[in-house]
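Exercise: predict the fold of this chain.
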Amino acid sequence: MKADRLGSFSDGVLAIIITIMVLQLRVPEGHELDDLIRSTGVGLLTYLLSFVYIATYWNNHHQMFHLVQHVDGSMLWANLALLFFLSLLPFTTSWLDQSQFATTPVVVYGLNLLVAAIAYFVLQRAIMWRQGPDSPLRRAVGTDAKGKISPILYVAGILSALTIDRGGPVGVGIALACFVGVAVLWIVPDRRIVRVIDQADRT
């Protein structure tokens, strides 16, 4: 299968995920700004966080598959695993919102982010294995500092929510700070793959 077919399918799934998330936002009962903040304010913040994650995965996925010509079965299944875990984000985001950041929903949200990151890592490795020792993706990823830091922050956030001030705001606050930190880390443009693509176009 050509890589563009897989990319188009993934684009469609991610677009649906974003649409589902925004449809879960509650419409304010009143017509004032206070009504919006009281009924939808938290939901808008959790939606924004999850939207940034989905947008980041779409951006990196899109760039990564510029370096792929053909896909095999291992890539297909790894990509489907990634999409499966990302498709759970509307559910975990909604639970996070409706619970007002209770411990268990925060932990589940963090686990959702963690397994999605692992699935993306597996997809990367499947592509590198298919491309062989001269893999352009391997050259583009390099040491992958962001990819290594992200799961550490996810685990730190999950453990904080479970062990620090159990049932109180401190552990949950640390966990949310870790999750937001990862999102901010990946918002910063990453030019590694773009540079490899540009080099390939010039040769």
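Check your answer against the key: The CA atoms of residues 11 and 58 lie 7 Å apart.
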